[in-house]
Amino acid sequence: MPVMLLLSVGMALLLGACGNTRENASQNGNKAGNAASSVTEPAEDTAPGEAETVTFQAANGDIQVPKHPKRIVDLTTFYTGYFLVLGAKPVGVGEGAMGNPYFKGMLDGAVSIGDDASPEKILELKPDLIVTYSGTEGIEQLEQIAPVVAIEYGKKNYKDQLLDFGKLTGKENEAKQWIGQWEKKIGELKPQVQKAVGNKTVSIINPYAKGLYVFGHNYGRGGEIIYGEFGLKAPPEAQKAAIDSGTGWASISLEKLPEFSGDIVFTCAWSGDTSDPKIVYDSPIWQGLPAVKAGHVFQLNPKGDTYNDPISLDAQLKFISDSLLSAKS
User: Fold this and answer.
1) Same-domain status, 225 and 308
2) Residue-number span of the structural domain to which 296 is assigned
3) At 15, is the secondary structure helix, strand, or coil?
4) Cβ atoms of residues 214 and 238 within 8 Å
5) Could you give the 3-state DSSP secondary structure of residue 204?
6) This protein's superkingdom (predicted)?
7) Computed from CA positions of residues 119, 123, 124, 128, in that sequence, does the dihedral angle turn out positive or negative?
8) Rg (the chain; Cα; Å)
9) Which of 33, 49, 268, 324 is deepest in the core (most CB within 10 A)?
């Protein structure tokens, strides 16, 4: 959930990671913490012109939006979990969000608008707010349907983004409540994890058709937890390429894998192409990694762990924490 700032160019990589088929099974479980209790059904139709409006600062300017939007159409896929945790379930979401196992049961009643929704399909949902990425083609058409708020993916960390969406939906208290609960969980787990991991380095690596992706601190797959909240170290080359660069990811060849592999590795198959991950996993280079030999390789869920919204992070936290604690020397 961020190369990937424009839908026309970057969403292929993001949506590839998420996958477009619906799978409700997860190796990490389908728990999303306390978020499910805050999910509400989409509101009934609101007549145009009735709602009070406020000004919201978006990537596409200062936008007049309903103070309490009732019929949100979310075209982002990777931000859907923010609306769910706030209790502002969209009436329409991308197909990728429908396939996130951590959202199981939370999107009942919402409509899948596919991966490339037409204005006509969006219009049918009678939205009072449309949320999309900055750089989306055809924003002018969408603006004729409802106010459009464009978001620049990855510009804000997930806590600030949640607070921002709290302002957008009139649910700032719900945003603050989630952050408080989250920080309490992290405060309890962080000392345990840091003690168990010690000076070990941690990598997040996905095989794909042309080699491997190495992920950093702000691109899902647990990076926000591993590097951000727990403050664990990446190998120097991964730190430089995927974190210090600010991109959140880097593409490398299989031959360079040992330079980017940490003492602990989180990985999963890449669902964005038809390549067989066993080409990497069965290779002598992968099998020779210290993390593989030590049994410190942990498989992420390619359908859910790609996301870094509050619900997905809540669901990822236990698996990541348990995995790191099990790698204790």
Assistant:
1) yes
2) 178-326
3) helix
4) yes
5) strand
6) Bacteria
7) positive
8) 20
9) 324
